[in-house]
Specification:
- The chain has five helices and seven strands; from the N terminus they run βαβααααβββββ.
- The two termini are about 30 Å apart.
- The strands form two sheets. Strands 2-5-6-7-4 form a five-stranded antiparallel sheet, with helices on both faces.
- It is elongated.
- Strand 6 and strand 7 form a beta hairpin.
- It is α+β, with helices and mostly antiparallel strands.
């Protein structure tokens, strides 16, 4: 799917409350999970020990770290919304993050976005809250629901 293009802060305000997406599907491989374990130093067996996870995990396989799933949103964001007419945008944090379902290794995931609020802060800065929902192909619940908080500096 082509990204929704928005021009400046007014373009962002114009899509408040309107669903954007979904993105293209992206596979989360065991290699992705292993790389994330190396970077984060979170080597819990449920993520990296394939044999043990097959034997002992209620999921029957390894699963992605929740924070790996959350981090995929940054790539999905660029695929979903292309914003022009701002000097820069920065990640300010998260209001709420939930992982209602796991992401088994080898799963395909995609995301949708919805701008929740755009508030002026002064001196050209705007506070932007965007809700992201990440779903797993064939899953019955989202794998991540998160409110991203960003700051945009208008031109």
């Amino acid at each position: 799917m082509a990204a929704t293009k928005v021009k400046g802060i007014e373009g962002l305000k114009a899509i408040i409350g309107k669903p954007v997406g979904p993105s293209e599907w992206r596979e989360v491989t065991q290699e992705d999970i292993n790389k994330f374990a190396e970077v984060s130093r979170d080597h819990q067996w449920i993520h990296v020990d394939v044999e043990r996870a097959e034997r002992e995990s209620p999921f029957g396989t390894t699963i992605a770290h929740g924070n790996l799933t959350l981090s995929l949103i940054d790539g999905f964001r660029r695929e979903l919304i292309r914003q022009e007419g701002v000097k820069l945008g920065i990640n300010y944090g998260w209001n709420k993050v939930r992982f209602p379902a796991p992401v088994p290794a080898g799963s395909n995931v995609r995301a949708t976005a919805e701008i929740q609020t755009v508030e002026e802060l002064g001196e050209g800065w705007f506070h932007v809250v965007t809700k992201f929902v990440v779903e797993r192909e064939g899953g019955d619940k989202p794998v991540c629901v998160a409110e991203s908080v960003g700051r945009a500096l208008a031109i």
